[in-house]
Automatic annotation (TrEMBL):
<dbReference type="InterPro" id="IPR041916">
    <property type="entry name" value="Anti_sigma_zinc_sf"/>
</dbReference>
<keyword id="KW-0805">Transcription regulation</keyword>
<protein>
    <recommendedName>
        <fullName>Putative zinc-finger domain-containing protein</fullName>
    </recommendedName>
</protein>
<keyword id="KW-0804">Transcription</keyword>
<dbReference type="InterPro" id="IPR027383">
    <property type="entry name" value="Znf_put"/>
</dbReference>
<dbReference type="Pfam" id="PF13490">
    <property type="entry name" value="zf-HC2"/>
</dbReference>
<feature type="domain" description="Putative zinc-finger">
    <location>
        <begin position="30"/>
        <end position="55"/>
    </location>
</feature>
């Protein structure tokens, strides 16, 4: 059985550099997916995506999410005011009439 050697400083530094590159490129991959990059930066990110399975997977995921959002029907979010009005109307309906014309005791 062969003994495994600990990684040398060169290998550790190379791994650290690669991790730092991925952290810096994270925003660029998102911008690439949105079509916001131009020129040399776009070419550099495209080259990295072609070589890197992690970044190409991130790009594919972003593209799938965008396609899914485009296919769903556009729905406006429910306004907070309408939610509050419905909740208030429900409380009034549950409580029954109140005030001067309320139920007799």
């Amino acid at each position: 059985m062969r003994k495994r050697r600990a990684p040398g400083p060169e290998q550790v530094w190379a791994e650290c550099r690669e991790r730092l590159r991925h952290l810096r490129l994270r925003g660029d991959v998102e911008a690439y997916a949105d079509g916001e990059l131009t020129g040399a930066r776009r070419a550099m990110v495209a080259g990295h995506i072609a070589r890197c399975w992690a970044c190409s997977g991130t790009l594919q995921l972003l593209q799938l999410v965008k396609a899914s959002l485009r296919r769903t029907p556009g729905r406006a979010p429910v306004s907070l005011a309408s939610v509050r009005l419905r909740r208030y109307a429900g409380r009034i309906a549950d409580a029954g009439p109140t005030g001067p014309g309320g139920p007799a005791r």
